[in-house]
Design a protein that fits this description.
Blueprint lengths: L19 E6 L2 E7 L5 H12 L10 E3 L3 E4 L9 H8 L33 E4 L12 E4 L12 E7 L1 H6 L6 E7 L3 H7 L10 H28 L1
Antiparallel strand pairs: 1-2, 1-8, 2-7, 3-4, 4-6, 5-6, 5-7
């Protein structure tokens, strides 16, 4: 079976720097000041996903005491708290919390963010081992963790509800995420666009064949031009 190739997505919404994410969880409310100016792609992506309702009913799927609590994986949407916990411990075959995505990726911004510091309450973009592989999963930092500063993009900071963040556990739910302070007209226009579609293995091979054919024709044209000279 071939590998699906996810497209790299650039959000249509450009943050104004005033956006605050109000995250309603089964443990309580968390308010996060988003770093839209420091990490516009990551924050813009999060804002668009929240506005689309993508995060509603997802569960937090990992909690590492003193380090991070992770959420935003779509594989948890239809699971109950006990099921998420069991799946996270490998007890449910075929369900792997932490492996889902939004069917696209975004670029990393930890290198360009001038304030990319992991402290208690930082909101950060999770990603796989490859560069630019973040998508929709995020985590809250539960302490200062400078070893993460040059690996993961920080795109927000908790301003209310840090006690709730520290109480979050595996299986706790995201009820909703509302974005305050956004340009509502621009955001509505942004989410009216269709999201990019992943390429199937067949499409990737066909694209490679077309590129090879174009290079072959260009090489023949260059050779013919050289002979004429």
């Amino acid at each position: 079976m071939g590998r699906i190739v996810l497209p790299v997505y650039t959000p249509y919404y450009i943050p104004n720097g005033n956006e605050v994410a109000v995250i309603e969880t089964s443990r309580g409310t968390i308010r996060v000041q988003l770093a839209g100016k420091d990490a516009p792609v990551t924050a813009g992506n999060f804002i668009e996903l929240a506005a689309r309702g993508f995060y509603d009913k997802l569960k937090f799927h990992a909690h590492k005491p003193g380090s991070v609590v992770l959420g935003g994986c779509p594989t948890t949407r239809t699971l109950g708290p006990a099921q998420v916990d069991a799946a996270a411990r490998g007890m449910i075959r075929g369900i792997h919390p932490g492996t889902g995505d939004a069917r696209y990726t975004i670029v990393d911004e930890w290198e360009t963010n001038p304030n990319n510091k992991h402290v208690l309450g930082s909101l950060c973009m999770a990603h796989k081992s490859e560069p630019n592989s973040g998508s929709c999963q995020f985590y809250f930092s539960l302490s200062e963790q400078p070893e993460f500063d040059e690996k993961f993009t920080v795109f927000g900071q908790v301003i209310e509800g840090i006690d709730t963040v520290q109480e979050l556990g595996v299986g706790d739910a995201i009820k909703s995420i509302v974005i305050e302070g956004a340009d509502e007209e621009a955001l509505a226009e942004a989410i009216s666009h269709e999201l990019p579609r992943p390429k199937s293995p067949k499409e990737v091979l066909e694209e490679l064949d077309r590129e090879r054919e174009e290079r072959r024709k260009q090489a023949e044209a260059d050779a013919a031009a050289g002979e004429e000279e």
